[in-house]
Design goal:
With about 210 residues, this protein is of the alpha/beta class. It has a single domain (about 15-205), classed as HAD superfamily/HAD-like (Rossmann fold, 3-Layer(aba) Sandwich), CATH 3.40.50.1000. The chain contains eight helices and seven strands; from the N terminus they run E-H-H-H-H-H-E-H-E-E-E-H-E-H-E. It has helices spanning about 30-40, 40-60, 65-75, 80-95, 100-115, 125-135, 165-175, 195-200, and strands at about 15-20, 115-125, 140-145, 145-150, 155-160, 185-190, 200-205. The strands form two sheets. It has a five-stranded parallel beta sheet, with helices on both faces. A two-stranded antiparallel sheet has the order 4-5. Strand 4 (about 145-150) and strand 5 (about 155-160) form a beta hairpin. Helix 2 (about 40-60) runs antiparallel to helix 3 and helix 4 (about 80-95) packs across helix 6. The radius of gyration is 18 Å and the shape is globular.
Length: about 210
Amino acid sequence: MNSPQAEKPANKPVVAAFDFDGTLTRRDTLLPFLLYKLGAATVVRHAIVLSPTLAGYGLGLIRNDVAKERVFIQCLAGMRMDELQQEGERFASYVMPGLLRQEALQRLEWHKQLGHRCVVVSASLELYVQPWALKAGFDDVLASRLETLEDGIITGNLLGNNCFGIEKVRRLEALLGARNGYTLYAYGDSRGDKELLSGADYAYYRKIPN
């Protein structure tokens, strides 16, 4: 990693926005989380029930958010949010380290040394992304959240929109204000990052600079 060199225009703050799955990590993290929480046998049983949805999503016939909610309803509905958050924290501590991309962590450190504001913008679940990201040194976490009833029971539906595609841009604007108020570095690896990358001053698709 080269020594940090400032690239920002004068008097303009710099933000580094990182996707999570496939960018900070080497793979999708939802399946490892479900395996950690439920065990392989239960995940296989759920996958059989969900096979039409998974096939439809793979063929591009079912939207990302629709498929995701069906998975959550099948696998997580009826659980207590406080208990699932505890599982998310343990997953972040014990499983996540083995899934990370070291070059992405080096790039994060580069931004931190320069004093840039670092943000995770991810469609993954906040309940395990947030505890890992804050410990890793990110300033903010924008991720997908699960809806709960008044008694804290998970419905399986998303709370608000899936943090995917244009929703990533909306979340970032809600956090930081007008896009022209800061210089943006953006890192992503999939079609869910297209809008975020297209609006960045420095966009990196499936590539982390060294």
